[in-house]
Amino acid sequence: MVRKLFLTSYFKEVATFLPEFAGELYEKKIVFIPTASNVEKVNFFVNSGKKALENLGAIVDVLDLSTANEKEMKAKIADNDIIYVTGGNTFFLLQEMKRTGADVLIKNAINSGKIYIGESAGAIITAPNIEYISSMDSIKKAPNLSNYEALRIVDFYTVPHYLNSPFQKITSNIVEQYSTKLTLQPISNNEVVLVKGDKLTILKN
């Protein structure tokens, strides 16, 4: 099956690109995973992402990995048409994905053709490893995370909010530090990376 990923910094800014990528969204069921935002004070993007999906006609089904039981988690990932993972702390998100086994379920779903939308942390986590983002996200918020191996769905490393306030300095430092070591993909808040199989396209709003 062809992998289909819609990777963003800030979904609300690029939501208009989704119907062309994912097809008609009216009454499509989207499992919406806000877990990364649980440990962040700033989380307005969760509601704006949810609202943008509802405005496109989608049915949003929230799944918080930190509180859901295994049966609920498996059912929601399997039964929905699209997987959406919000921004927040990437290390906490990875910790909870590994703890619950959602990492394997999500990876299998993507590999079987289910569309994945990753916003900020949700985009970062598709890389092979997330250590490169440690200057942007606090590792301390994931005390039980033993390694930084991530989903490894793509072979590049998304740098969200590139040169956007308040991340101008942090993002340019990440690019400076890692550009010779990793295949970075910096994106601003009004850009989206579309992955279809091995084809990668960047659109700007």
From TrEMBL:
Q: What UniProt keywords apply to this chain's record, in alphabetical order?
A: Dipeptidase, Hydrolase, Protease, Serine protease
Which Gene3D superfamilies does the UniProt record give? 3.40.50.880
A single GO BP term for this record reads: proteolysis
Top-rank taxon, per record: Bacteria
EC no. given is 3.4.13.21
**Top EC category:** hydrolase
Q: Name one GO molecular function term.
A: dipeptidase activity
**Which InterPro entries does the record cross-reference, listed alphabetically?**
Class_I_gatase-like, Peptidase_S51
Family membership noted in the UniProt record: Belongs to the peptidase S51 family.
Would you tell me the protein name for this molecule? Putative peptidase E
> What species is given as this protein's source?
Streptococcus intermedius B196
